[in-house]
Amino acid sequence: MKNKIKKLNRKIPRKEAGSKVTIDELALMIGKGFRGMDERFNKMNNEIVLIKERLDRIEMKLDSLERRIFAIEDILTVHGKDIAEIKDVLIEHGKDIKEIKTELRTLKKSDNGNSDKIFGLEQRIKVLEVKTG
Question: Which of 11, 20, 101, 119 has the CA that lies 20 to 30 A from 3?
């Protein structure tokens, strides 16, 4: 029974006592081992090259996106300034329109509302009010 257990526990088959491995056989075994390692090493190198190429493409895309974002920020900054200037102009025009309306009311009172010129100016002011919102 003990002999059977010992035989089952053997992991590597042993050669009969007295037989020896020749140098040629040993060289073949070592060569097979290195060949397998070379194949795995080459496969890993190929995978690393592919990963590096992919990272390079990702970096190029990120650089492109960064440039586009900066361009959009510049455009928004310029448009923001333009919008602020337009608002300032509209505010000024609004003040001007109010002043003109006040002056027209004064003229209308003094002219008793009979002037066609005053009526025309009032109509133009109404149009300007609609345009300036």
Answer: 20
